[in-house]
Amino acid sequence: MKISVIIPVYNAEKYVSKAVESALQFDEVYEVILIEDHSPDNALQACRELVQKYDKVKLFQHPDKGNHGAGASRNLGIEKATGDFIAFLDADDYFLPNRFTAEKELFKDPKIDGVFNAIGTEYLTKKGKEEFMSNINDSELLTVNYAAEGKEVFRGLLGFTPEAFGSFFTLDALTVRRYSLESKKLRFNEVLRLHQDSDFIIKLSYLCHLKSGIIDIPVAMRGMHDDNRITKIIKYSPQYNQRQFLFWNSLYEWSNTLSLETDIAQHIYLQKKAFELSGKKGISKKIGLLAAILKNPNILRTKYRFTYSHKA
């Protein structure tokens, strides 16, 4: 295997060295691609030092040297990658020694486009732990509930399997054939500053044949610290609802180009519509909700039931 590990770097001066070195422990890692995204700290200098220290490390910035977000940075990394496989790693996370154990066997099957695994959680600061517990509070082992592959992964991620499939696996635990991304013309939605990873994973699970690897123990660790943006957003706050709307709207626009099963297409539309309504206020919100209920009462089964309890 020749694996390109793509690491978007923003405000990660304190963590990026550990991330890079965790990737370099594997003979299968052909190159580590750092995309420095105009960090406010000294991350750029830290990246330059890593390039000087390790031959496999390559450093890139956006053409205008500006800040474009994690999605755009990962897209640039995909363009620069030359390995046969692509793995992603956040600059404040790190790989464990078993990171590619499942991949070595599963990718012997040519029909497998991607393999996903479980990751664990490490609290790097007290404040990071408090914000995680308060605003996210998901399992410290981020994984799925059972082994799956193919379209069952896509349906499971959207909640359409008889048994609950579980939470999202993350990019840190995903390895995919570079050819599969190129042939499907799949990239991250650069409009999404948050949730572009979830958006990408759902689209990938539909377009490509994914298979679960190690799902009972972690193959990587995500770091929770003071600067995690995702932990600062309070669930069902106006900011949270807006981010959710952008995410579901991205999936909705994508789904309109496909012939999805009716239940899946309806679910994506209703989620998009629910969070769209959550951004409205007063009489326009009530009228919009009434019209949506008359059109499809199933909108009341979406996450809108949490947001409607807030005052308009």
UniProtKB/TrEMBL annotation:
<dbReference type="InterPro" id="IPR001173">
    <property type="entry name" value="Glyco_trans_2-like"/>
</dbReference>
<dbReference type="InterPro" id="IPR029044">
    <property type="entry name" value="Nucleotide-diphossugar_trans"/>
</dbReference>
<dbReference type="Pfam" id="PF00535">
    <property type="entry name" value="Glycos_transf_2"/>
</dbReference>
<protein>
    <submittedName>
        <fullName>Capsular biosynthesis protein CpsI</fullName>
    </submittedName>
</protein>
<feature type="domain" description="Glycosyltransferase 2-like">
    <location>
        <begin position="4"/>
        <end position="121"/>
    </location>
</feature>
